[in-house]
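USER: For my understanding, would you kindly supply a protein sequence with its structure tokens?

ASSISTANT:
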Amino acid sequence: MERIWLKSYPRGVPADIDPNEFQSLVELFETSVKKYGDRPAYHSMGKVITFTELDRRARDFGAWLQAQGLPKGARVAIMMPNCLQYPVTMFGTLRAGCTVVNVNPLYTARELEHQLKDSGAEAMVVLENFGHVLQDVRHKTPLKHVVVTSLGEMLGLKGVIVNLVVRKVKKMVPPFELPGAVTLKDALDEGAGKTLATPPLGHEDIAYLQYTGGTTGISKGAMLTHRNVIAALLQYRAWLHPATGERRQVMITALPLYHIFSLTVNCLVMTAVGGENVLITNPRDIPGFVKELAKHKYTIITGVNTLFNALLHHPQFAKLDFSSLKLAIGGGMAVQKAVAERWKQVTGTPLIEGYGLTETAPSATANPLNVTEYTGSIGVAMPSTDIALRDDNGREVAIGQAGEICIRGPQVMKGYWQQPDETAKVLGADGFLRTGDVAIMDEKGYIRIVDRKKDMILVSGFNVYPNEIEQVVATHPGVLECAAIGVPDEHSGEVPKVFVVKKDPQLTEQDVLEHCKKELTGYKRPKYVEFRTELPKTNVGKILRRALREEKKAA
């Protein structure tokens, strides 16, 4: 396979990385602690912890886990938003030789029960706000140990006020009973008096069971080994280095750390380079988010299209000081042209789009960091990564033709936890992972996604891609957000329908249709427009077309 994308690499980015630089994430963590000890590692609600303090607390938590009798490879679930307790318990779990099971704190009882039973988690750390959900299902799971923490627990004196507001004023902690549970403070205090003996860890040991969003059915646990995650973070580190050099980085971390994008790009890459993560606990509170941004001289911000869009529509955002900002990285969903152009206009920094999956930890492609304008692509394959676009028969398509993105590299998962049949559906004998995303590659190796296989709309035999429709609709000044799906039609099989959240209250259906008429050929134009006050989204802000399709199907 000719790696044609290498000619598009900026100077200083290597063709390959060496995953053997570290034998485990624990080795990487301990190396960084020795090198960057006094540097700030995490900032949350005015409280900063250094690498040295993180090292001590993570050691104590790891020692506590081992004192409970958890063996190497035992699964430990962590259910919390972005707060200082997350890196403490996550790194502590790894140092105990255990496997991290990241849990979305907004899960329903049914979803939580499935993940705990499927993973076989023996221990769990949960924020008290979600204790009532765990209470409902704990007796149905293999959990033996439960650790409860509060939002303000590691914030010092300010934490007392935070907990008072959360519990009494906002009443965000429903009552719950978890007999035998201990507080994180007690676990850390107990662990401080015990010895931590990290067992030998190697590349093939599982670091994370990272569950997919369940967009194709029941949620599956991607087995991400230490080698997978080390490779992914080294790929990102190599990609960033020509732009960041050895300068200390301050990164705004609004996407939840339990999500693979934020876990690798924010948490782990910043650990490797001695950077600081500014944790945003509730990024949906845009006014509060903007106020927090005003307090920091940050150099990098990551997010999804909807988050950048929401910031741009807040009146105070454009008044912020962006002089320190060097990189803005979008992932998780397609970055829309209208959002990228507005971001560049307001901040003076281009919005760089990348692409990856839970199954690739999530490194796959990225736009070179020396681009200055919106490219409309997800960039090129990252170091040590091969990408092939293939047809339904597994044959590689020609340059300029649409095919399914298939990825091979050291970051590709080991497989799905205890699901060999599901693993075989996506992982071939040649090591390539089938993604389900359809794309086109040009002669320079740049890849442009046309859509998900399952999202494609078939209009009278013509393929129509929702991404294209949404890109067009989003450029209308009266549109805040939009999503396109196919709905049944007796004449053409399917026709496009677009759901729109208004920015301009005066926007009409006819306005949208006329706008599309100028930009889209006949069969691609939406036949129906439906206005909504909001669109269904994942917890990281990715719009769920699937939910809209299921809603219409049920109706």
About this structure: The domain at 24-34+49-201 is CATH 3.40.50.980 (Rossmann fold). DSSP finds 16 helices and 26 strands in the chain.
